Amino acid sequence: MNLEKLKSVFRNRTPAEADDVALVAALRHGDARAFDLIMRRYNQRLFRVARAILRNETEAEDAVQESWLRAFTHMDRLQDPSRLGGWLARIAANEALDRLRRRDPATAADASEPDAERETAPGALPAFPTPDAEKRRSEARALIERAVDRLPENFRTVFVLRAIEELSVEETAAVLGIPRDTVKTRLHRANKLLRDELKDALEAALPDAFEFDGARCDRIVINVLARLKTASGALPDLPPD
Predict the structure, then answer these.
(1) 230: pLDDT confidence band, cut at 50, 70 and 90?
(2) Is the N or C terminus of the chain more exposed, i.e. has fewer CB atoms within 10 Å?
(3) What residues have CB less than 8 Å from 147, skipping those under 6 apart?
(4) What residues contact residue 136 under an 8 Å CB cut-off, 6+ apart?
(5) pLDDT tens by residue, 60-73
(6) Measured distance CA(6)–CA(20) in Å, rounded
(7) CA triple 236-240-241, angle to 5 deg
(8) What is the pLDDT of residues 127-137, one digit of tens each?
């Protein structure tokens, strides 16, 4: 398939509608729009993975930007473009773990150690302050995010990937480099810690937890493309909308 045909596959599509295989092929032909769409499709996943490990939004954003630079540089190593999402998540997890090791080596060892199955309770969390439905949903989301942040590192990352990002057991195991049975055990224990206090809030608010909204997504895309162009001129400017 030549470049013009590849472009026609996704030219007017949203990130969710574009096909990963076609996007990767177009990117390998040097098309900047393909990389733009890939970043917009997976920014939230990479942010959630990085934040689950680092528990700091500014650090997580920095980790996502570095992850995109690594991904672009090593795109030739992606053997199966249909598995793009898992490959990118693994890069983000590695970047975040590297940052965590530099910040706190002992904590990072626990986060990546398959047999480290320590449990700590999330602790008492505040009740909803108002009966208003919309405010209750917002409070539920904040409640979940605080509770997930308090999970042990090894449980927290698995929970984010499985329950929030909805990756399969196999995909989660591949992203984190741990056995499938360890993924199942960690998710079970994370759910056990969260279930009693968050039972009523989980179902409604989980899809919105650790949201990565349009402005933040735009910032990541713009910064990464600018850094790539400054470093090597590897990608042309995007055409005007």
Answers:
(1) confident
(2) C
(3) 122, 125, 194, 197, 198
(4) 128, 130
(5) 999 999 999 999 99
(6) 11
(7) 130
(8) 334 345 566 67
